[in-house]
Amino acid sequence: MSELIVCTTKYALLPEDDHPTPATIVIDQISGKIIEIERKHLSKSQFQSTHASSTISSWIDAGEQIVIPGLVDAHVHLNEPGRTAWEGFWTGTRAAAAGGITTVVDMPLNSLPPTTTVANLEEKRQAAVGQCHTDVGFWGGIIPGNQDHLKPLVEAGVKGFKCFLMESGVDEFPCVTEADLHPAMERLQEASSILLFHAELDSVVNAQSDLDPRHYSTFLQSRPQRFEQDAIALVYKLQKTYQGLRTHIVHLSASSALPTIRKAKAEGLPLTVETCFHYLCLNAENILDGHTEFKCCPPVREDDNRDKLWDALREGLIDCVVSDHSPCVIELKNIESGDIMSAWGGISTLGLGLSLLWTEGKNRGFSLKQVVDLMSKKTAEHAGLGDSKGQLKVGFDGDFVLWDPAASFEVTKELLQYKNKISPYQGMTLTGRVEKTYLRGSLVYDRTAGGFTGLPPQGRLL
Prior knowledge:
There is one protein chain. The chain has 462 residues and is of the alpha/beta class. The protein has helices at residues 44-50, 89-98, 118-128, 150-156, 178-190, 216-222, 225-241, 258-266, 277-281, 303-315, 353-362, 368-375, 377-382; strands at residues 3-12, 21-28, 34-38, 55-61, 66-69, 71-76, 101-106, 135-138, 140-141, 161-164, 194-198, 246-249, 271-276, 320-322, 400-410, 429-439, 442-446. It has a six-stranded parallel beta sheet with strand order 9-10-11-12-13-14. The protein has a four-stranded mixed beta sheet with strand order 3-2-1-4, with no helix packed on it.
């Protein structure tokens, strides 16, 4: 006799529909996989009448809430081991689950050691055991001279590799040159992997040396769009040489690089692109001087640039949206001095992404299906998880979220689940709220019952 977890709803975002539709989703309790979807909102007695030989271990009626697939955040820095004062698997995955994310993919930095060898990957995995409230996958890293470690890392299960084209900000993860990339890309092409680029090239900038480091304009001038434009031109050049290897631009902020991206896609090159919530929901004009919580690299740019990124999402030039959750200890953000230039560059967002994108996106004509796809189906496909994550579909993991699209809330410090509670979104009112998050059919977050009270971590390492 099979044991089933059943979620019935008037409103489910199914892959084949543009709008929420009635559905009853059946999950096998042992495997955690979706085994059946009936396109009706069934009562328990109606369901039992056709499943008499099965035991219902959990019956979930979503009521007026929308059931959406568990989200996949493919760009997160969890920083463990080594920099656990910055973040960690426990706090980072709790924050993710509170935002409807059921899978995160951890970047190869800023942990110590970085994920550049199999031994380092295993150290990270050991640190994660028993701490994860979501599933966790791992990206590997490319640094000068580690090309012989790449194939073993692929065999050990990393989802792909990230490199920097300018200094990363941490000594243990140096940037690579074009000369470094050729042997690495040859090996990755043979291994059917993917290469992610932090796409900024440190060109000469004729910046005034006497500008106030507290002014956001000073920082913005120091990281012009040209940095991204030149780097993405190099990626395009490399992609034409290694057409069997998919390349990916992380955290695109510069709209000036879109023509090169458009050209690559028109030529059929396997180039994909992500952007982040902060580039879509913030703008430079509204950032006050001394507010270091807004600093990230590349920077949040002007409102006209933001409009062009939204247009690129609509056109399909940008494939998905991620958080690039990049926290640090509060001291490194220079809150008291307001020195933006020397502050750590990273924005913490885990837990807020869906509400941010929905709040902004619905005002720009994006449907809930479009918003959710950018954070689930598309991110899962990018991370090589497109056959098990990101969709409410038979055979996929039973990861889902109960979502109230009309609820509004103010972002407060107390609301944040990640470790260092600083956010550029504090004080903003957002629309749309995650009520409950389920991983393989098991409840991992319940907003109305204390969040994580009585809910042990159930995440797996992918």
